[in-house]
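Help needed: design a sequence for this.
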């Protein structure tokens, strides 16, 4: 498909605006003129969080007050995740529990959307087993939420809209963001990589990049509003721009945003190692506002396992990229993801993962025991190893990473770090939370009026998961 085939037209968005007006009138009729209340519950990754911000934006346009929980809600939207089976079962349990609120308020609208329902069979399961759910729509229908909600309200019937699509690109939806300091900025959607353990390409569609001008203008507007920390989002940001045909890649996009006036930080995730280039690391080193942090998932340190995962690189290639990045970007913080117990992974192959972790020296890692996802190639692989064996390996990896994280964090003791103060925490004497340029969490005491400001903190203590200090 051509890039333009993904783009939602202005005429289509104008129709959604008309649906917003009709949905507002219909909701007011259901509430007897009282301002309707809406709650959006989100599961999963940062992209889901960003999608939920757009859903909240559409609900706000419809005239809803956004509330923090399901009690008293007239509209409930559950934005789901499909990464792990355990998460799906928890989500389904929570959806089932909503029946009690629907019984008390039969006029309540319950919608379920996101990655989980985009999977084959899930929509039909909800239709049959969760009769209190009024609306189900997949990831490709998010931009049509006003239209779908209006259909539920006007036709007074359940609506199920799951399209098997390559995806869409839609500008013009104004999100209601969860923070006044930090902002998620999607730069692209979808994935073309088809790692054998991952469901994302099947539920999110093909890679499609937003126009660089739209991204830069969005960041410029948010800087003017006082935002200070931006995370550029994509399943693989290093593929950004390949479908645009204009020669602008992700490193070029970073430079464009870095050139904007203002005091702010640019973060990004996630980077796929096979597409992480020297140009990216060189750009990180040269840009003043690009955070010195990269999340670069390696998943396994063994080449056979990496091939079985369809990752597209070897352990040695990953290591060389990591070493080049650390040499090129002074003070670089590296974090990663790793899967323990991929089907057929032997003890010696797991030892290769431990070796790579030790060689790179990550500041932190997200570690997962392999969870089969129905519909992915890896779910069909033979796996002779037990859960107990995998847990033992996981514990060994966790112990090693905790040791490395503590050592890395102890190197901060005595240093003064520029941090962005982002919130509060009740941790005894430490009431404020903040993040360093490299994303390290720092706790210290200070006035809450500093939230949203850059400050300097002297690090006095370290743990494997955070730093502690005092304001300079």
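Sure. Designed sequence:
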């Amino acid at each position: 498909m051509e890039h333009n085939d993904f783009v939602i037209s202005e005429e289509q968005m104008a129709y959604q605006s008309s649906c917003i007006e009709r949905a507002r009138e219909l909701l007011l009729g259901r509430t007897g003129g009282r301002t309707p209340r809406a709650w959006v519950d989100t599961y999963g990754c940062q992209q889901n969080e960003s999608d939920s911000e757009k859903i909240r934006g559409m609900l706000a346009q419809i005239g809803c007050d956004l509330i923090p929980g399901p009690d008293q809600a007239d509209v409930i939207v559950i934005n789901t995740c499909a990464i792990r089976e355990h998460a799906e079962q928890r989500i389904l349990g929570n959806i089932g529990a909503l029946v009690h609120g629907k019984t008390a308020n039969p006029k309540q609208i319950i919608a379920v959307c996101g990655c989980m329902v985009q999977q084959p069979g899930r929509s039909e399961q909800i239709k049959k087993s969760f009769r209190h759910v009024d609306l189900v729509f997949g990831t490709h229908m998010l931009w049509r939420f006003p239209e779908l909600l209006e259909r539920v309200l006007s036709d007074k019937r359940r609506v199920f809209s799951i399209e098997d699509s390559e995806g869409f690109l839609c500008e013009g939806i104004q999100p209601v963001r969860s923070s006044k300091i930090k902002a998620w900025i999607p730069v692209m959607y979808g994935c073309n990589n088809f790692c054998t353990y991952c469901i994302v390409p099947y539920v999110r569609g093909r890679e499609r990049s937003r126009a660089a001008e739209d991204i830069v203008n969005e960041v410029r507007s948010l800087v003017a509003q006082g935002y200070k920390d931006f995370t550029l989002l994509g399943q693989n940001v290093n593929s950004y721009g390949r479908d645009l045909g204009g020669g602008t890649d992700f490193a070029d996009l970073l430079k464009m945003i870095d050139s904007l006036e203002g005091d702010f930080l640019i973060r990004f995730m996630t980077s796929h190692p096979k597409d992480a280039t020297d140009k990216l690391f060189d750009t990180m080193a040269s840009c003043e506002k690009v955070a010195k942090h990269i999340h670069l998932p390696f998943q396994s340190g063994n080449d056979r396992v990496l091939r079985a995962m369809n990752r597209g690189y070897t352990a040695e290639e990953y290591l060389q990229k990591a070493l080049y990045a650390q040499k090129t970007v002074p003070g670089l913080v590296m974090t990663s993801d790793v899967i323990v117990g991929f089907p057929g992974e032997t003890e010696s192959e797991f030892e290769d993962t431990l070796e790579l972790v030790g060689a790179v020296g990550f500041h932190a890692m997200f570690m997962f025991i392999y969870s089969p996802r129905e519909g992915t190639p890896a779910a069909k692989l033979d796996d002779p190893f037990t859960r107990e064996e995998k847990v033992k390996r996981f514990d060994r990896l966790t112990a090693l990473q905790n040791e490395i994280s503590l050592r890395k964090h102890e190197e901060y003791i005595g240093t003064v770090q520029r941090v962005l103060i982002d919130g509060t925490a009740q941790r005894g004497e430490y009431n404020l939370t903040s993040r360093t340029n490299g994303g390290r969490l720092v706790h210290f005491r200070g006035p809450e009026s500093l939230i949203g400001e850059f400050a300097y903190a002297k690090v006095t203590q370290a743990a494997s998961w955070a730093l502690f200090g005092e304001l300079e």
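The chain has a mean pLDDT of 95.
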